[in-house]
């Protein structure tokens, strides 16, 4: 952008923060840097962490976001303010709040307490969320925490969905499955698949199966059995693992979550838990989501099993991707 003459470079980069000087944002999307005065953080810390670090069940209780506080007047602010996700708490009379609000010139008048989002404040590719309160009224931030969590979580879910389809969506496979097997899934182009009898396996083990595996398996039984429950589905999954998976998996009974749910406009039954390699095998484990969906017009009960292997990685993003694939399931009427 600024590769012309030295004079043009100087003229283009006169402002203190410009596209030429502003660094690129860094850090993970689920890492939240919270900027506020120390006394504000002392008063709000427990409430902020409770709202913004809810746990999601994977192989353990995993934080959906990781919160780090920094004082904008400290020396650490320079680097940490360049993170992809920054949340600042304060009033209009504070310098770091003013710097963020400068990115929204010409918009609606301010009306604290309120939540505002602006971009590219201290770094390119950055999102800054402002919890704007009236001067000295720090307790006003408490009423903004629940809506803030909802906003950030939905944005993270959308980011995870967009990221999984960067390679493109395999709509040809979606149509082909419906024509051939009577059901469909929408998967990213990078998934490989195979079918044997009534067992369809869809797998993405890029870039290295020792580091990351995402797999979805679809099968069915006909006629539809009578009102099966959790144990029925876990036994069915065990039979499926023995028949079709590349290596054995066992499911510890502790920590199983079972509940009714939906897939599209159809009722479903969901079981979520942890799979492990059997004792004596290579120590590996990961979360799985199992869903059972009835399709009466086909007289089929479908079993959808999505499982993840991601050692040493945050798993929330990949679980959202698997849920997105499961949610795309359709069967022919």
Topology:
Blueprint (H helix, E strand, L loop, with lengths): L5 H7 L18 E5 L2 H15 L2 E3 L3 E3 L2 E5 L6 H4 L4 E6 L4 H7 L12 E6 L7 E6 L12 H20 L6 H11 L1 E2 L7 E5 L2 E6 L8 E9 L8 H15 L12 E7 L2 E11 L8 E11 L4 E10 L6 H12 L2 E2 L2
Parallel strand pairs: 1-4, 1-5, 5-7
Antiparallel strand pairs: 2-3, 6-7, 8-16, 9-10, 10-11, 11-15, 12-13, 13-14, 14-15
Helix pairs in contact: 2-5, 5-8
Strand order of the largest sheet: 9-10-11-15-14-13-12
Mean pLDDT: 90
Helix content: 25-40%
Assembly form of the protein: single chain
Molecular shape? elongated
Total number of helices = 8
Keywords:
333 residues, alpha+beta, seven-stranded antiparallel sheet, five-stranded mixed sheet, 29% strand
């Amino acid at each position: 952008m600024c590769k012309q003459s030295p004079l043009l470079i100087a003229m283009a980069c006169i402002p203190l923060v410009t596209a030429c000087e502003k660094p690129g944002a860094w850090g993970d999307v689920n890492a939240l840097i919270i900027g506020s005065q120390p006394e504000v953080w002392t008063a709000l810390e427990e409430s902020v962490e409770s709202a913004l670090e809810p746990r999601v069940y994977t192989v353990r209780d995993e934080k959906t976001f990781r919160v780090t506080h920094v004082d904008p007047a400290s020396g650490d602010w320079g680097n940490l303010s360049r993170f992809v996700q920054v949340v600042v708490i304060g009033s209009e009379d504070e310098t770091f709040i003013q710097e963020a609000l400068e990115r929204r010139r010409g918009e609606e008048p301010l009306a604290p307490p309120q939540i505002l989002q602006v971009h590219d404040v201290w770094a390119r590719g950055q999102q800054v969320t402002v919890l704007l309160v009236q001067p000295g009224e720090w307790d006003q931030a408490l009423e903004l925490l629940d809506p803030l969590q909802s906003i950030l979580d939905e944005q993270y879910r959308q980011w995870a969905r967009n990221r999984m389809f960067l390679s493109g969506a395999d709509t040809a496979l979606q149509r082909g499955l419906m024509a051939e097997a009577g059901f469909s899934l929408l998967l990213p182009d990078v998934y490989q698949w195979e079918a044997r009898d009534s067992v369809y396996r869809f797998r993405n083990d890029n870039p290295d199966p020792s580091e990351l595996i995402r797999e979805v398996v679809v099968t069915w039984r006909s006629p539809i059995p009578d009102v099966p429950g959790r144990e029925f589905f876990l036994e069915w999954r065990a039979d499926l693992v023995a028949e079709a998976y590349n290596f054995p998996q066992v499911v510890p009974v502790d920590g199983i979550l079972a509940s009714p749910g939906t897939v599209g406009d159809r009722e479903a039954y969901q079981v979520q838990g942890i799979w492990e390699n059997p004792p004596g095998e290579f120590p590996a484990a990961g979360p799985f989501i199992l869903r059972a969906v009835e399709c009466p017009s086909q007289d089929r009960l479908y079993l959808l099993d999505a499982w993840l292997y991601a050692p040493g990685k945050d798993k929330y993003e990949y679980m959202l991707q698997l849920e997105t694939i499961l949610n795309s399931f359709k069967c022919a009427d």
